[in-house]
Amino acid sequence: MITLTGLKLKNPTILAAGIMGTTGASLVRMANEGAGAVVTKSIGAEPKEGHPNPSMIQLECGFLNAMGLPNPSYDGFLQELEFAKNGSSVPVIASIFGGDADEFLRVAEGLSPAKPDAFELNVSCPHAEGYGAMIGTDPYVVEEITRAVCDSVDVPVWVKLTPNVTDIVAIGEAAERGGADGVVAINTVRAMAIDIATGYPILGNRFGGLSGSAIRPIAVKCVYDLYAALDIPVIGVGGVSGWQDAVEMIMAGASAVQIGSAVSGGVGVFGTIADGIDKYLDENGYTGVEGIIGLAHEVI
Ligand code: RRO
How distant is the alpha carbon of residue 102 from its chain centre? Predict the structure, then answer.
């Protein structure tokens, strides 16, 4: 059991936003498969179809996506969130997005009747005009959005950060100033792939975000830097597929670890990683995960 921004998690693995998070049933299934908490697909103010296909492809080093924030709006998602809340024994976190503070507020308030256990503010999608990283690269805007949501909801607020910036710490500090209870690092890394037979970019949106093991070292460095600079917990995400990756992320400074792309290898991944972490802690004489959070900072 861990306590993360006031939430009780039976283990430090969390389903990342965007994966198996579009229905209440799939969220409950991930909870039943062993996730310590689950995060929904990012939800906005209006229904959105997303970018044209192909919107997700597999590369040799991970997945490239430009889904384009497809979602049924807070109105269309409310019942799914209620279903997830009623059926899940673990915290359910609502990932939300908007173009400005007012829109974030509208979505947070619209989903609040379903009583999500926390909100995760998506200011980091790498390929959404007017949303995500378009606003999440500006510390003033991140602070303003964070403050607006924190002031209006009575559950913890996490802010999910983009690695597509010169200095992720400046954005993390802005979230902390705005009152965030935790930061989540990282969203996908801006990337593209080209079909050499035709010369066309493969994704319908031309470019998108890379996830999977290729981005793990990027995530580890971002988590490491954020942990050193912030007083609020850092939740690590990016390319974690085994317990060793999770332990590494925790040693960099993560208090918990989100899992996304690796779910494609089997939904048992949460249990496998949680068991592996426990075994590692046991074998090395630690009584809990706190013993290794940020351990890499103590090495001279
Ligand atoms: O929907 C997406 O295209 C998407 C989102 Br909201 C995000 O935050 N990160 C990503 O890689 N894709």
Answer: 22
